[in-house]
Specification:
By secondary structure, the chain is of the alpha/beta class. The protein is built from six helices and 13 strands.
Length: 287
């Protein structure tokens, strides 16, 4: 769907509880974990959904708000389990004018990153279930992402281990970033996912860019291929679900690795088609 096709008739005013920077001060990328207090009006959500944030205007063409979608980073019930909060992961963004070269701040991301605790944040949704947690705890989860694409996976991992106590299937997370400090929820500033390293079913694999100063994408394909034996075995299992999230560059790396594992583009596309037909493959990508 295009952004102008989303239903904005039902909006809710939340309150910013906290805004925590999860990349170092002075680091090129500013990424924040925001916790929003939900209104008394019922607002139920599940892992894999998104919310719309309405950044207040006025904006060009007289628009009162600017809509931007964000994947939900908290499990149902919120980070504290009380059911009255929702969390999102926000990267402060800028765009460059192709002609003038001027740098313009992203409307929604800068509005959110500049907000202070106690500020009202208007949201809509929740929208879709792009990623859905399987009902059976013996399902295998193969999750691949980069950048803020880790947000839905954070919600996934927290949910399955909080709700089930233990997950019987394999849970494998492959996550890429420009540097170790940009491994969101896995770096020294925020180690949420490290809480589950003692779970026998969970393993996380980190892929760092080989040339971060030249904006080279994370070496996701290399890390995937280093673990190709286990990944390929998982893909042959009818209980395996595959999720790819984040920058389109992550998908490119993932596709390249899968083609090499499958022995060519056509065999991989055949397998991917089967996964899609079985409802066991999902993507959530952005530029």
């Amino acid at each position: 769907m295009r952004l102008n096709e989303y239903d904005l008739n039902h909006s809710y005013t939340t309150t910013l509880v906290s805004s925590e920077r999860i990349t170092p001060l002075g680091w090129e990328a500013e990424v924040r974990h925001l916790v929003l207090r939900l209104p008394d009006t019922p607002f139920d959500y599940v892992e894999g959904q998104s919310i719309g944030v309405l950044a207040p205007g006025p904006h060009e063409f007289g628009n009162a708000h600017h809509l931007r979608l964000y994947s939900i980073a908290s499990p149902r019930g919120g980070d504290d389990g009380r059911g009255d909060t929702i969390s999102i992961c926000v990267r402060r963004c800028f765009s460059i004018d192709d002609i003038s070269g001027e740098r313009y701040p992203g409307r929604a991301s800068n509005f959110l990153c500049d907000a202070n605790p106690g500020d009202p944040i208007q949201i809509t949704g929740p929208y879709g279930v792009q990623f859905e947690v399987p009902q059976n705890d013996d399902a295998n989860l193969l999750m691949v992402g980069a950048g803020t694409g880790i947000a839905p996976f954070r919600a996934f991992v927290k949910h399955i281990y909080q709700r089930h106590g233990a997950w019987q299937g394999k849970v494998r997370l492959f996550f890429g970033a420009k540097s170790g400090m940009e491994l969101l929820y896995m770096n020294d500033f925020r180690k949420d996912l490290a809480l589950y390293y003692d779970q026998s079913s969970f393993r996380a694999f980190e892929a760092i860019s080989p040339r971060p100063h030249y904006d080279a994408p994370p070496a996701l394909d290399r890390v995937l291929l280093e673990n190709s034996a286990e990944i390929w075995e998982m893909l042959q299992d009818s209980k395996t679900f595959v999720y790819v999230a984040g920058l389109t560059a992550a998908e490119t790396k993932f596709e390249a690795a899968m083609e090499e594992m499958a022995g060519g583009k056509e065999p991989w596309l055949d397998l991917k088609s089967k996964l899609n037909a079985d409802g066991r493959y999902a993507e959530l990508l952005y530029d």
